[in-house]
Task: structure prediction
Amino acid sequence: MRKSVRAASALLAGLLAGGLALLHAGPAYAADPTTMTSGFYTDPDNSALRWTVANPGDGRAAAIRTSIADTPAARWFGNWSGDIAAAAGSYAGRADSADKLPVLVAYNIPDRDICAGHSGGGAGSRAAYESWIAAFATGIGSRPAVVILEPDALGHESCMTAGQIAERNAMLKTAIAQFNTKAPNTWVYLDAGNAGWIGASDMARQLAAAGIGGAHGFALNVSNYFTTDQSASYGNAVNSALRSYGYTKPFVIDTSRNGNGSNGEWCNPAGRRTGTPSRRGGGAEMLLWIKIPGESDGDCGVGAGSSAGQFLPEVAYKMIYGY
Result:
């Protein structure tokens, strides 16, 4: 009888452990890169810093340097990055040498920004993308890192055919698998849009179809303006919906430009403000600066006449103060 009780207890413990693991699914071997580093990495070649160095006499330079250029934020990688294995490896290596955690954005999916077009481009084919993302993961290797995977890739499904969606999901699954295999100390967050875009249950369905079960988590509010509270509520709603697939996931929030919240516009709206600098917690697993404040969303709004990614000092300066 005692043996049977012990066996039943062991079985119950195993089932409970399995259930807990199921609810917070992810690669079992993935290390926590935040425990391997002493804080977040500041890109030494970010667009705001380049502008301040080139314009030391400008009256806006000191504020932009202190409030934006010296703040840890992500670097974006795409078809402009050249040899992606070398580029990602060099960046992760410099961060590792400084004992800091780098945040890298993979932004090269074919038909990128297919709805809006301001940041159009990406790899020319599925084969080209899968080769590129494999090299990206190889470049990072065993160094600690965070990767934000393909902003807007799921949000733009409304502009795609069923065949395009299936192919994109296959590419995202391949990308997640490549990082799991080749970059075991990297946490990958698949982009999940923002609180004002796609309903939580629909986003959960899209995440599941794109392989979120194999990723560490999902990313919210990338390059957008919704408050941290709004984004956290949305993330929790997505997780509630993900439970029907057998798991939940941690999420991160881009807080770089959400200090004043959203006015309903996404493309260079006026009156926005910088938000909480990168940190652990705060209603999410991490709050991160993923988009550099002052970088244009495209030829629109207060960035009329600019191109996506172009640094606009006046926009950056006003964003520091919220006007």
